[in-house]
Design a protein that fits this description.
It is built from six helices and no strands. By secondary structure, the protein is mainly α. The chain has a domain of 79 residues: Orthogonal Bundle (Helicase, Ruva Protein, domain 3). Helix 2 packs across helix 3 and helix 3 crosses helix 4.
């Protein structure tokens, strides 16, 4: 019995390790060897910038994780701008000017985006106010009184109950 338990434990650990490796592979596959910069510091900066830029084809993946051709073009563009001497902010500004703010995985709170950020909490407050008003008006509304039974209805009811 002990051996069976050890075998299951080993199999579970091995399966967990294989699953962890498989989950890490797509990000490693996305950046092609010909894209990697020779300067490790610039490459690290490029990777950090790429993690914050959205793939316009895959929607919710960063360009660092995506295998799409457009993501590859964006990764190359980021690296070209870094090699040209641009700062991180200048690179991001260049990409945003070219593709719009949608390319950012974490949009800024400037411009018209503040309304998008505030819409959720504002709608929650609005719904709470409407709900509070409804419950308050409902509580203060007069309770409808049921009409009493007529003599004829009472007689009919007692006849039904007697049966």
């Amino acid at each position: 019995m002990r051996r069976a338990g050890r075998g299951r434990s080993f199999a579970l650990r091995a399966a967990s390790l294989v699953l962890a490796c498989l989950l890490a592979l797509p990000a490693a596959w996305a950046v092609q060897p010909d894209e990697i910069l020779e300067d490790p510091a610039l490459e690290e900066r490029a990777r950090e910038l790429s993690k914050g830029l959205r793939c316009l084809v895959c929607r919710n993946e960063s360009i660092d994780e995506s295998n799409a051709d457009l993501a590859r073009d964006l990764r190359i563009l980021v690296r070209e701008r870094l090699v040209a001497g641009d700062s991180d902010t200048e690179v991001i500004d260049f990409v945003v000017d070219r593709y719009g703010e949608y390319v950012l995985l974490q949009p800024t709170l400037t411009g018209s985006n503040w309304l998008l950020w505030a819409a959720g909490p504002l709608m929650l407050l609005l719904a709470g106010g409407v709900g509070y008003g409804y419950l308050r008006n409902r509580a203060s509304a007069p309770v409808p009184q049921e009409a009493a039974l007529s003599d004829e209805e009472r007689a009919r009811l007692s006849k039904i109950l007697d049966e």
